[in-house]
Amino acid sequence: MSGQRTTLVTGGAGYVGSVLVPELLASGRTVRVLDSLLHGVLPEPIASGDGVELVQGDVRDDDLRRAALEGVDEVVHLAAIVGDPACSREPDEARSVNLEATRLLVREAHDGGVRRFVFASTCSNYGKLETDELATEDWELHPVSLYAETKVAAELDILAQSGNGFSATCLRLATVYGASPRMRFDLTVNEFTRDVVLGRELVVYGEQFWRPYVHVRDAARGILLVLDSPAELVGSRVFNLGDSAENYRKLDLVEILRSRVPDANVSFVHRTEDPRDYRVSFEKIGAALGYTVSMRVPDGIDEVAALVSSGAVEDPFADVYRN
Fold first, then answer.
1. Which of 6, 46, 287, 305 gives the lowest tally of CB atoms within 10 Å of its CB?
2. How does DSSP classify residue 126?
């Protein structure tokens, strides 16, 4: 059945998308990528064109979006203005891309006969937790940034469309890390590793705050697993995507790095006001779908360290490697 599917991946040339696309191709799917190439990068899996159709443009372009949906069986919606800093810089654009375009895309997908729709949301939706418990999908959401606000609102719209042959799933991703064809060094694990390995001073703000983490390949594997799972298990549902053992404080990341680079130059700026402080449970997706991760944060640190040390990335501080 997989060989008969055509999958549209919005944002398919991005950090997660450029890892997901080869996974989809390997499963026998035909893949269409809709991406604006905002950061000027065309990763090799898309550039090669083997089994991939690239539709270059903005997900807010009505004609382009509708054309991209033609003949599609399933949609993975990754396209977004990602992260708190990027959304804060361009709030109107963030709302336009992350919320308004998502609303149009999911309705057009529903009306156009698409069978599966997977939305990349975020664990940032949980905000600051005033408890030592791990947040589950049933917890009340407390978005404390524009980025999370747009994701929470989009989730509601997507789930409202789900049903009657249209299976929509929202995946709240942990903070992603690891090597990708469209590399990013503005993500916590990747950034910390780059700075320490290259001997730069690493300044850590709010070292006691918690975040969950997931390797980019495991994020891609989770998306593919949802697409391949029976609709009755995933339709109209929300899953946290990650592993419960992979909740770390920033201080924990530093300690892992120091075990590899003992003379790392690290300084801490203590903060108490950061509202994003959360640990998350990922038991639901494991119980429902048998999902497990293949990489842990120490593995990802070693991977990124090797990438940076090899010189394969000419200038890991270049703007092209950040959103």
1. 287
2. G
The Cα–Cα gap between 6 and 64 comes to 17
Please report which residue ranges of 112-230 form alpha helices under DSSP H. Answer: 146-161, 188-197, 216-228
What is the Cα–Cα distance from 117 to 164, expressed in whole angstroms?
Answer: 13
Q: How far is CA 155 from the centre of its chain?
A: 15
Give percent of the chain with pLDDT exceeding 70: 98
State the CB neighbour count (10 A cutoff) for residue 158: 26
Cα distances (angstroms) measured from residue 238 to each of 220, 254, 282, 288: 16, 32, 11, 11
Please tell me the least confidently modeled range out of 31-35, 262-266, 275-279, 287-291.
Answer: 275-279
Residue 216 burial by Cβ neighbours in a 10 Å radius (0-12, 13-18, 19+): buried
Cα(254)–Cα(264) distance, integer angstroms: 9
In the numeric block, the tokens 């980019």 are attached to 216
How far, in Å, CA of 21 to CA of 36, rounded?
16
So what's the pLDDT on residue 61? 97
Integer Rg of the chain from CA: 19
Beta bridge partners of 237: 169
Comparing 40-44, 51-55, 197-201, the range with the smallest average pLDDT is: 40-44
